[in-house]
Design goal:
This protein is an alpha+beta fold. The chain is 28% helix and 32% strand. The protein is built from three helices and nine strands, in the order H-E-H-E-E-E-E-H-E-E-E-E.
């Protein structure tokens, strides 16, 4: 039987623990927080569709947002004067009715979303994708219709 001294064993265990910690940090980021280039670019707010039960904007403030451009890139999300940091761009396919009921306390009577919809998590908002060029933006409790600005 080979005898391993305690300092050598301790260093080996530290190395294994460091590798595990690194793997647990990297793997979820690769699997879940992938960068979705399908949402990058510019999106124009075309109309106010609905309001959650709790919002940061009143109706007048929301209407003044119409016509503004949401800019999404890898490093930032920008709408008007507000700039948000980098996003995970986590995409989740959800059941429209239960997601809107649970998260915003509303029914999809005005949003025009499909029954199963992809929701992209931005750093300060959520984007419900209708098509590659149309979406619903949930921003501070207000739901806006948005269209992609051609490049």
């Amino acid at each position: 039987m080979t005898h391993i001294n305690q300092p050598t064993l301790f260093r080996a265990l530290l190395g294994v623990m460091a590798c595990l910690a690194l793997a647990l940090t990297i793997i979820p980021a690769c699997a879940e927080g992938h960068f979705d280039p399908g949402v990058t670019g510019q999106w124009k707010l075309t109309s106010v569709l609905d309001f959650a039960d709790v919002t940061a904007l009143d109706e007048n403030e929301a209407q003044r947002m119409v016509g503004k451009v949401l800019k999404i890139d890898r490093a930032t999300i920008k709408l008007g004067k507000r700039t948000c940091g980098a996003s995970t761009f986590r995409v989740e396919r959800v059941k429209r009715d239960s997601d809107l009921r649970d998260n915003a306390h509303l029914r999809d009577t005005t949003l025009g979303l499909p029954k199963q919809v992809d929701v992209i998590e931005l750093s300060c908002a959520f984007l419900y994708r209708k098509t590659s060029d149309r979406a619903v933006l949930a921003w501070e409790g207000v739901f806006f219709d948005v269209v992609r600005v051609p490049r």
